[in-house]
Write a structure and sequence with these properties.
By secondary structure, the protein is an alpha/beta fold. Helix content is 46%, strand content 20%. It has an eight-stranded mixed beta barrel, surrounded by four helices. Helix 6 packs parallel to helix 8. 35% of the residues are buried. It binds ligand C2E and magnesium ion (2 copies).
Length: 279
């Protein structure tokens, strides 16, 4: 009631976000962001095909913060441009270090916010970043969420075409969750579709779930795209995806995202590039 209302100091949500905005700004300055890497595996051969870079905030107060908690704030405050640039630079740096160490470095996929893609300077930034070495582009892939790629689709098509001309690959992330126009899908200059985890989970719930995944795989292949299943957690899912000729998988079954040093030791062993599959 009335008394309760006054017993607490009033605090507007904008004050809260101002606090967190400052902390995120500080985080960038103090280098509190880290990239974890998750392996992607070829389903038929068991070979490591790539890694996805996933950002975390190592908050000194609370520990590792998952991206779902701060990416929306970075986007709202436009800090995403700077943090996105940092993530891209960091992934390229790790890839170059692995190459120099003679490790069988694989392409690293970096998640890109639609705000970055929409920015008029983004293509130039990628071009600039690729100048570090002649093979830099062969170490990079960009992942863009399906639901947002269709906004401003013509501008995005132009940007993606320019990015791919550099030799950088492009993947549509969380495929199936947005509402891609099929006519645009066939025109999008991309290399890979990543099937959203929710569809992989639904495969276990019955024939219609499996049919949907099968249709997406066929669609991808008909468009000459590589197809990756996200969030594979069980042996059953793996077996089913292999049966449906899905190209690659990513998920806890094979490996969770881990810090660069661990990824390097666990998956980029100096000599054997082939991972045992017990096939
Ligand atoms: P995403 O790109 O779709 O990444 C896949 C998410 O699924 C990751 O969550 C990953 O840790 C999680 N995952 C992988 N395998 C499994 C599994 O088997 N089971 C389950 N339950 N989850 C699995 P994470 O790391 O929390 O990232 C969430 C989202 O945050 C990402 O989804 C991506 O959209 C965004 N994100 C991550 N890093 C960046 C970044 O550097 N920039 C931008 N703009 N967004 C990022
Ligand atoms: Mg992704
Ligand atoms: Mg995804």
């Amino acid at each position: 009631d009335h008394r309760d209302l006054h017993s607490f100091p009033t605090r507007r949500s904008s004050d809260l976000s101002f606090g967190i905005e400052n902390r995120l700004r500080q985080a960038l300055e103090n280098e509190e962001f880290v990239l974890h890497y998750q392996p992607k595996i070829n389903l038929a051969s068991g070979q490591l095909t790539g890694a996805e870079a996933l950002i975390r905030w190592n908050d000194p107060k609370t520990g590792l913060v998952p991206p779902a908690r701060f990416i929306p704030i970075l986007e709202e405050t436009r800090l995403i441009h700077e943090v996105g640039r940092w993530a891209l630079g960091k992934a390229i740096e790790d890839y170059q270090r692995w190459r120099r160490a003679g490790l069988p470095a694989v392409r690293i996929a970096v998640n890109v916010s639609p705000l970055q893609l929409r920015s008029r300077s983004f293509v130039a930034e990628i071009e600039e970043a690729m100048r570090v070495s002649a093979d830099a582009a062969s170490g990079l892939e960009l992942e863009i969420t399906e639901s947002l790629i269709m906004e401003d689709v013509n501008h995005n098509i132009d940007s993606l075409r320019a990015i791919r001309a550099l030799g950088v690959r492009v993947a549509i992330d969380d495929f199936g969750t947005g509402f891609s126009s099929l006519s645009y899908l066939s025109k999008l200059p991309v290399d890979t579709l990543k099937i959203d985890r929710s569809f992989i989970v639904d495969m276990a719930s019955g024939e219609s779930g499996r049919t949907l995944v099968s249709v997406i795989i066929h669609l991808a292949h008909a468009l000459k795209l590589n197809v990756v299943a996200e969030g594979v957690e069980t042996e059953e899912q793996r077996r089913e995806l292999r049966r449906l000729h899905c190209d690659e998988m990513q998920g806890y079954l094979y490996g969770k995202p881990v810090p660069a040093e661990i990824f390097e030791k666990r998956y980029l062993a100096p000599i054997p590039t082939k991972i045992a599959t017990h096939a």
